[in-house]
Amino acid sequence: MAVAATTETGARPARAGRRLSAPAWVGTVPFLGYVAIFLLWPTGIVVVDALKNPNGAWAFSNITELGNPLVRGYFIGSFKLALISSLLGAVFGAILAYAVASGDPDGTVRRLYLAVSGVLAQFGGVTLAFAFLVVIGPVGLLFHASWFYSFPWGITVIYAYFQIPLMVLVFLPAIDGLKVQWREASENLGASAWQYWRHVGGPLLAPAFLGGTLLLFANALSAFATIWAWENQIAYIVPQQISIALSSEVGLSNVNVADLLALGMVIMVAIVMTGYALLLRRAARWLR
Amino acid sequence: MAAVTALSEAPGAESAGRPRGMQARRRRRLNLFRYVVFTVFGLFFLVPLLAMARFSLEGATLGTWSLTAWKQIASYQGTGVPPLISSIEITLELAVITCAVMLVLLVPTMIWVRLRVRWLARTMEFLCLLPLTIPAIALVVGLGQIYNKLQHFSLSALMLFWVYVILALPYAYQALSAGLSAIDVETLSEAARSLGASWFTVMMRVIAPNMRQAILNALLLTASLVLGEFTIAFLLLYNNLQVELYSISRNTPNAGVLFSTSLAALLLTFVLLLILSYAGRRRRGRG
User: Fold this and answer.
1) CB pair distance less than 8 Å for A141 and B140
2) Quick check: B108 and A27 CB within 8 A?
3) Strand, coil or helix: B58
4) Predicted local distance difference test score (pLDDT) of residue A250
5) Is residue A8 assigned to a domain?
6) Judged by CB atoms within 8 Å, which residues 7-66 of B form the interface with A?
7) What's the pLDDT band for A3 if we cut at 50, 70, 90?
8) Which of A57-61, A213-217, B186-190, B282-286 has the lowest mean pLDDT?
9) What is the dihedral sign for C-alpha A210, A214, A217, A223?
């Protein structure tokens, strides 16, 4: 109460000194304007152009082109790659996160793995494709994997390089949230390790695990640089096809192909990310 | 934790032996599991990097060692592309500009929303996290038109910073938001205001210095994002470091300079993030 009163007396002279008293939200206009121009406007352009013909007339029937076998093929490719790489990334990432979490919370191993994960989770660029090219590719030092250029397995192994660290980053807080007391309590009640994981640890971690998997799924859907540097002759997934559509005129007639594909991607990723947000909220209920 | 452990050990010496033996066995098994996991994943993460390092040190003939590729970073000139060093400069400049714009745009707005426009907080959070749901590859389709307009004013690749700020928003927002919620913004600003400080002073000299760590985190994350960005620069036909590396790899496959430059960029990012990790620990130790 006293503090509030102080604010009032403190604020009043300043406000009186101002000639024009604008509402407080005006202070957020630069930020909102920036976001509107460089985020909302381009997104709007994508949505509008996806529903228009190249000559500018509205054509809502374009949306049915997403069912075109050719287009559907890219979406199925994207879905397959995202699914496989997110499942593998999530399982291995969770195992690694558990190994990291069970060590000294302020130790070097944990610090190192976290720092490395932070770097590698962002390492989904052109460089990553080079790195695997020289390990298992046609010029590989280790061996020449015949499956290196196979879709989706070759690229999944490459994607695992940034998916696993990302899973470590998002799943580690959940494992850290498992209280030792719960383990001790279940042991005192005579539970085996399996029973503990089946009835206590597993259910508690499930939302965080599923949420992490969804985040990885969205991450794999949106990734472009790595797969483009890995193989740019054949388009397997939507981002590759967007890139091709942007740089060439070939494609479906009467449709802004790039916009339509981009709209399809935004919808897919938005659904997945909404699921992620909901699961994250659920996971936060117990693990804080 | 200590209390429960003490409790479980307290009742009688006769039962204490068995649980302790079980604990020891579990600990041994856990340690074995950890060593195996760390080794396997360590190899998976390390081998590609080592292979890149080996390739960057390859001499003129296979199997020899030389530093040529590392020396070439400063002088390499691929066919049909600008000199490598110029794209490195552009990328570093972009990182600095993006960081500066992001700070100027986001920090005051976040503090302001927190203090005076609370009802906008959810909208702001939504807008800041929105780029996570709009992949760069989708955003770039719409950006083409906007950049067409921008190119009437400037053709420089530095113009990429406009959209890089957007890409960095989610990461910077999360870092800054963690910092903001860790301090008592209301009390600080009320104290400063009651002493006659202007809102500018409150933000720049009272609140911002208190969230120095969060600001550093946001800067490092933004910088590392810019260093690795390819999609948008490539599709808007600008030339940054990653695009240049890609072009070199298409014209001269397996050029040593590819691997030395990639590795140098990666090491720079790693150092940035290691600073972040250790700066965080120092602060915790002090507090």
Assistant:
1) no
2) yes
3) strand
4) 57
5) no
6) 8, 19, 26, 30, 33-34, 37-38, 41, 44-45, 47-49, 51-52, 54-55
7) very low
8) B282-286
9) negative
Of B264, B234, B227, the C-alpha closest to B74 is: B264
Which pTM was predicted? Answer: 0.84
- Mean pLDDT along residues A257-261: 88
Structure-token pair, residue A119: 């770097």
Q: Is residue A27 part of a domain?
A: no
Whether B123 shows a pLDDT value over 60: the answer reads yes
- Which stretch of A277-286, B145-154, B245-254 has the lowest confidence by average pLDDT? A277-286
Helix residue ranges per DSSP H, chain B: 2-9, 13-56, 68-72, 84-115, 121-129, 136-150, 161-182, 185-194, 199-201, 208-210, 212-227, 231-235, 241-251, 256-286
Residue A225 lies inside a defined structural domain of this protein: yes
Domain tally, chain A: 1
pLDDT digits (tens, 9 = 90+) for A156-200: 999 999 999 999 988 988 888 888 888 889 989 988 888 998 998
Looking at CATH, the fold of the domain delimited by B81-286 is given as MetI-like fold (1.10.3720)
What is the least distance, in Å, from the CA of B279 to any CA of chain A?
12
Helix axes A153-177, A108-121, angle to 10 degrees: 130
Question: Mean of the pLDDT values across residues A99-119?
Answer: 82
Whether the CB-CB separation of B32 and B232 falls below 8 Å is answered with no
Q: What percent of chain B has pLDDT over 70?
A: 89
**pLDDT for position B103:** 93
Question: What does the domain layout of chain B look like in residue ranges?
Answer: 2-56, 81-286
Predicted pLDDT of residue A249: 60
Domain extent, residue A279, equals 69-283
Mean pLDDT within B70-85: 84
Of B194, B189, B185, B266, residue with least CA distance to B224 = B266
Q: How far is A51 from chain B (nearest CA, A)?
A: 13
Distance CA B221, CA B213 (A): 12
Indicate whether A128 belongs to any domain.
yes
CATH of the domain at A135: 1.10.3720.10
Which residues are B19's β-sheet partners? none
Among the partner residues B34, B138, B254, nearest to A139 by beta-carbon distance: B254
8 Å CB contact between B152 and A273: no
- ipTM for the predicted complex: 0.83
Please report residues of A whose CB lies closer than 8 A to that of B130: 39
Given an 8 Å threshold on Cβ–Cβ distance, is A24 in contact with B117? yes
